């Protein structure tokens, strides 16, 4: 590994050593057989002393040669962070876009030194490199895990993702052009994109993005990680805004009773939601129980009056009790498979809450 040495910083340290000792240029040069011109060249960062002179200067100052050359771990990383990266298993500069490698490495080294697991100092460059590689491995692992989560969110919300790409076209155009400037990728897709310099179809661009991001290649993941993060942020905003636009029309309630009665076709569902706040009791009366809603421990409901639609979340003790054979259009199971979301509506085509609750094809 070819280490970068900041000659100006070394020169400043040599100058400080000379001044602290009260030496003139000539007197200081006498210690090493160096002329005034040599000393000035060192102090102004135009040249470095040879190895023997570096050792002697360090002895005068009571420091090590590494301390004279590199100053501190912080300074060493500042000058050599890219050198360390290029010498690692993952020589991809795109990682700088998402992570502050120097700061992460300093924190890691401070933590190691604070618990006395083999002190890391500027005098052991190999230990600093080892610490850097440990940090890098941790970051790559974190990126891979987060990358999969981000991609899955996009895959499960493709319609909203397309809307976001259309809405924020300029971001994705600039992102893609930036990638192509740094990349040797001459695929047909990229040629066409570079020619038109625009996202002609949100659907096609999303498919293109998902195709690229499905790669197991670490460099590709690092390259597209910022884009997936931003698209997920756009998704979050879009869903949040969607919820805010409809929440004033929602009636949220807790259920502990469901009954079935025959009602006329003119009636709407809202008339069958009765609430008693004093006893915190709510009863839903359904026109027919074709959804086979029974055996539940509790239900939370959301009623949208202007859509005449009832969404409900039923808590079942175990997966075997969940009526998956119903005609429900929307449902989601949580980590212990105990929750079931469905829809009861007089308008079966309603998809108002699909982006929020999730849609099962």
UniProtKB/TrEMBL annotation:
Alphabetical list of Gene3D superfamilies matching this protein: lambda repressor-like DNA-binding domains (1.10.260.40)
Entries under SUPFAM superfamilies matching the protein: lambda repressor-like DNA-binding domains (SSF47413)
Chain ranges of the HTH cro/C1-type domain: 14-68
InterPro entries in the record: Cro/C1-type_HTH (IPR001387), Lambda_DNA-bd_dom_sf (IPR010982)
GO molecular-function terms, A-Z: DNA binding
Pfam families membership: HTH_3 (PF01381)
Protein name, entry field: HTH cro/C1-type domain-containing protein
Organism this protein belongs to: Gemella haemolysans M341
